[in-house]
Amino acid sequence: MKRAYLIELTIFRDYGRQLLALGFLVAVLVGCGMQTVLAAPSIITCMFFMMGAMGAAAYDEQNDWGRFRLTLPLSRRDVVLGRYGAIVTLGLGGMAVGLLAALAIGAAASAVELPGELSQALALDADMLSAMAFATTFCLLIGAVVASVVTPIYFRLGQTKATQLLPTIIVMIFVLPVVFLGNSGLLDGALPGLEQISAFLAYIETPEGLAVGCAGMVAAAVAILAASAAISLKLYETREL
């Protein structure tokens, strides 16, 4: 697995560097444009998980790399686990870049007086840091879910065929349930479990609740990625290249 993981990182090297630099720039622009640093790490974290899965799949079909890779002393299990390791590494790298950009913007806003109320809007305080931690962890979970859905499809069908089917699959998994619930009347009047949801939201506003909520989302992301890796391994073992 380690050899496959290092090969994936080698392939990702130039692409990853460019993406990290672009992510830092996007985080700065988003933070300044929205006049808040809250969303910047969240957006970059989610984006990097998705870009990692899609970018890795694109490399598989360049110069028949996917076929050539199997001539190396690597098992298909090594390939799958190395791929997931690279996706997680790039996703966490995006999170680090987003947080670094947010902290840099906050520090600059505190050190230099900006026009209007921009310095106050971009300043970091305890409430902002807590909200940023929760939002970033939540988007880490979202990015992990998306990567977990698309990666098995890429392993089974390849990047070209998977790209043709992914829009339909994404709509069926993420959009249709929302449309169905919205039009079914189930959400009319009182939302089921509203009291429990309100109690949970009040709980995560406390320091203990924030820690529990963030830890729970990270654990859920790990579990989902692990399940996805198991599915990818089963699909990739039966695929003829």
What would you say this structure looks like, in words?
With 241 residues, the protein is mainly alpha-helical. The chain is 83% helix and 0% strand. It has helices spanning 2-34, 39-60, 65-69, 76-111, 118-122, 126-157, 159-184, 194-204, 207-237. Helix 6 (126-157) packs parallel to helix 9 (207-237). The two termini are 20 Å apart. The relative contact order is 0.13. The mean pLDDT is 82.
Largest sheet: none
Count of extended strands:
0
What's the SSE pattern?
HHHHHHHHH
Number of helices: 9
- Beta-strand percentage range: under 5%
Terminal CA distance: 20 Å
Query: Could you list the spans in which at least 5 consecutive residues all have pLDDT below 50?
Result: none
Mass-distribution shape = globular
Write a concise keyword list for the protein shown above:
241 residues; mainly alpha; 9 helices; 83% helix; 0% strand
Please sum up the structure shown.
By secondary structure, this protein is mainly α.
Element layout with pairings:
Layout: H1 2-34, H2 39-60, H3 65-69, H4 76-111, H5 118-122, H6 126-157, H7 159-184, H8 194-204, H9 207-237
